[in-house]
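Hi U.,

Before I forget, here's the chain from the pilot set. I'm dumping it here mostly so it's searchable later in email.
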Amino acid sequence: MAIVEAQGLIKIYSMGTTEVRALRGLDMTVEAGEFMSVMGPSGSGKSTLLNLLGCLDTPTEGTVVLDGTDVTQSPRSRLPAIRREKVGFVFQQFNLLSHLTALENVMLPLRYADVNRREARERAMRLLAHVGLGDRTAHRPPEMSGGEQQRVAVARALVNRPAIVLADEPTGELDSATAGELMALLQSLNQESQTFIIVTHDPQVAAQTDRTITLRDGRVVQEERRV
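Structure:
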């Protein structure tokens, strides 16, 4: 079953009198449970694609169907709810709130989803234990290593039980050993049927995914499957 179906995606940014075509008719399908990566040079359209798939932006032309919902036909006012319900995000810079504990950071998305505090706490505690941080729940980001912070970010991305997790250069701030540990964690979560799309510049990271698509000038120019 397809979790993502993108067809004919065109994205044009207007910069004064100049138009920048970030995507040029891109087609893409992601099946449920896939563990895939997106590569390409700077300016190839990777971030734009991620923004469209994550309902952070809308295409100039084309459609995105996310877990059965045509988000391009949904009003903009509905996009935050779709994003909250269906998408988890993991970022290169972690994007944790430094004044909150690991537990509070993971619980945060559930506050906006009207989940009661007891259930939110239980769900966040389970996830932190699942990513190997059961003994670090009361620590704040400044008290944690980069790898630990990224694990908190992964738990936060999963807490709403999203259909898909979008990871934007998730190993970019980590040393090679810690990056390897993070990829092993993501692979184990994928084996539990979580769908991942990972944007990366690192061929070693991409090599650990089951499928890689390469973008150039807003188009898919190469696809490699490993399974």
